[in-house]
Amino acid sequence: MPEKRNVSGPPANGSASGGNTYTIDLNTFSRRLQALYAHWRRHKDEYWGSSDVLAVATPPPSEDLRYLKSSALNIWLLGYEFPETIMVFGDEHIYFMCSQKKASLLEVVKKSAKDTVGLDVIMHVKAKNDNGSNQMDSILQAIRSHSKLDAPTVGYIAREAPEGKLLEIWSDRLKGSGLPLSDISNGLSDLFAVKDKNEITCIKKAAYLTACAMKNFVVPKVEKVIDEEKKVTHALLMDDTEKAILDPVKIGVKLKAENVDICYPPIFQSGGNFDLRPSASSNDDYLYYDSSSVIICAIGSRYNSYCSNVARTYLIDSNPLQSKAYEVLLKAHEAAILALMPGNRASAVYEAAISVVERDAPELVPNLTKSAGTGIGLEFRESGLSLNAKNDRVLKAGMVFNVSLGFQNLQAKTSKPKSQNFSLLLADTVIVTDDGRDVATSASSKSVKDVAYSFNEDEEEELPKAKVESNAKDVIFSKATLRSDNGEISKEELRKQHQAELARQKNEETARRLAGVDSGSGDGRAAVKTASELIAYRSVNELPPPREMMIQVDQKNEAILIPIYGSMVPFHVATVKTVSSQQDTNRNCYIRIIFNVPGTPFTPHDANSLKNQGAIYLKEVSFRSKDPRHISEVVQQIKALRRNVMARESERAERATLVTQERLVLAGNKFKPIKLHDLWIRPIFGGRARKLTGTLEAHVNGFRYSTTRADERVDIMYGNIKHAFFQPAEKEMITLVHFHLHNHIMVGNKKTKDVQFYAEVMEMVQNIGGGKRSAYDPDEIEEEQRERDRKNKINMDFQHFVNRVNDLWGQAQFKGLDLEFDQPLRELGFHGVPYKASAFIVPTSSCLVELIETPFLVISLSDIEIVNLERVGLAQKNFDMAIVFKDFKRDVMRIDSIPSSSLDGIKEWLDTTDIKYYESRLNLNWRPILKTITDDPQQFIDEGGWEFLNLEATDSDSDNSAESDQGYEPSDAEPESDSEDDDSESESLVESEEDEEDSEVDSEEDKGKTWEELEREASNADREKGNESDSEDERRRRKMKASGKSRAGPISSASKRTKFR
Asked: Locate the Histone chaperone RTT106/FACT complex subunit SPT16-like middle domain: which residues (predicted)?
């Protein structure tokens, strides 16, 4: 896969010292030269072909992408490539043959070579027009003369064909010298296999660039192409991706463009033509993204000539075979990565992968690639480090591998030719560490949820049928009910079909849940508050000495000393209910103290009152004084002391109910905390001190928010987070991250399940001038631009923080928590009143939230039983939403005053998220309804479950519905008699639930009676026959309908019903 490259510019690892000159890192040169000689001498016979001299020649510069061991040795040893240079390493000398300019650069290595390995460096300078044959003869003569052997063995890279006139002459001279030759390729491969710290850093930077290119450019680009149904060729995607890699800043990577390059032209494959070899290329076919299609994307980038690679497969509306094959491949790939440990053999990596395939999908073994990847570094494929079943090479810390695994030429049963043949490929750059491995390209996700897409709306609409495949025969809809006049299925009809199936599923689910729940019994009274015994003084001796017979406040013992009959009687301040003062016209001041007394309304149950039920309590006392200042001071002291004591006791009681959290493990040297600065917190810390911004840090197992004050600190464990949200500022004044927790925590002295951190995107600036400013005022325009820039910067800072935390949560140890920042879907939002004020409520993928106004609204969709849309009618401008939770002991959540224009959008959203909803014309009183359900769940199940809320079913069950639906039909025929029609109508108006059988009785005597008389007669008849006709079930049903404010009017309420609807 050659490609023309621009080789001008600074070489890797070189630093400019002025003009076009570059310096060599002498420390690195010395260290690696010593490593070269040590490895050569130690493994001379094993890897270096028993060579006595090493001769390496580099070809002339080329614009083609190529990987040569001669060039790799130049870069590894000297920092960058020296074209048309011959290097000869002997026991006593090192010879360089090159041009004058290169020789001047290499002069600096003479002293380092002498100091490090005790060798002299000799330069043979070739003139510009000279072919170099004389210098070559001099070098070969020197090899013979300085060797202890008559014919020293010369090692060279046999696999590299000579390029250019200079190397061809050198090859001829070497072969014609009569000296024995041997191949040193294996020695160089083993030398490069274990990377040092600087090399690992370069590979990590290259891998981060590669992963970010895939995540931030390739995936959004392909998604946009599919979403907009564009026709884009693989070659065009290749060109755009290459440009993105060569300009790292555009994809959010802060690396210098002159230090980066591609490893190979990016590969895009789809439409049935797949080649999993690294030499594959992107053709000129259009990207194919129809149903059951597969897209393979592979990109590799270099930093300072060190390579990295990543490959991902994306499934579009995948069929079962594709989904299963990808899941198996993902497991096999993870198993191969886990097998990369120091001490393991290279063959164990491939064996780990193939064992997974043999266990989970043995039929796919023939399609598995024959290797799990190769070593990677200065060369894209390092020979000798292939991860196949035959390689017994022992893995060492510092080795780096391109773990690449795939299934090729799989066949799917589909009518689309381009989807029949498909392949799958996954690749990651993995570094072997002392204690395991490090996946350097983990920023690019390969989990099923991130690579499987569903863009086919038609197939999505058929999902309800697929979801209940086993019960599909129970629900059969005719074409007449599913298709409109033009033959298309309308959205409303599809929604009704889906809702009908959801109703059945919901009733079955509720029945199973209620069958295993004991509703228990209770008196509805709040649990008795357990409080410690209120003791101000344990003995009389602890009382302070009386100064005067005046009311005193003892702050230390939290008591009030009141003079009663000449003695100072102490009362704990917690026994005080209220204290007040007033002044009359005679300048007399009165203080009135009212105490908590058991039995009075709104007095909480207390353990002390229940313990001393036979005691006599003082309800209130009043005192008169001539000193208004003293009275006012006492009142303020009592109120302040009572407020502090109550706050302390409340906080203590709340802390006593908290679930014990694990301790926060702070990030160490290996893992720096992810930080977001200058944030405010809600709920705010207590106290009257000036509020300060703080910093949110992501550590090993949780977040920590802290300000400069030592007592203002909050720890949030990852394991306690139920939902995490990120909401950038668009029309709001703040950008925020919000955490909804499983268990309460304390923020200051407040107990909460919701913690929010936010930054204000607008500066609070007030225009004092008062006059209107022109829209074309330069200052106004500049100020607006400054505000936009500030908002964009804050949003980007938050987005970067969220992305990094999501990457952290994607690691193996956090997969069980299933954490990921969710972002509200504004296009699905609607206005409503969840508490006291109107707010903009927005769905997310898993919740319904309102995160701007307090108190916050966070409702998990998984907790919702059903939703009832109330006050829905043609004449209504607003309607209400009642959310019933699966926990029937939890109060129903109401969102009121939702504009009717949002009704269709809400119904569509509820249906899409598989939430059963009902509609009613009136608001229901839900507490009695839920109590009736929990008291007798079996009765609720037997009578149809939630279908008593079904407005359409209720209307269709009415006896008079057929007549009312007929409407007015004009006719020329004269009625025979009006009296008969009037009679039958009168009978239908007054007949009771038990009188249907007697409906033929003549009602002539009832003519002319008022509604009140008819109602009174009907009620008397019901009372006389109530014991005979009214069963206990019917009375319970009437009670439920009465408590629920039934929608039915006078006529429908009189019709006979046997089920809740």
From this structure: 830-920
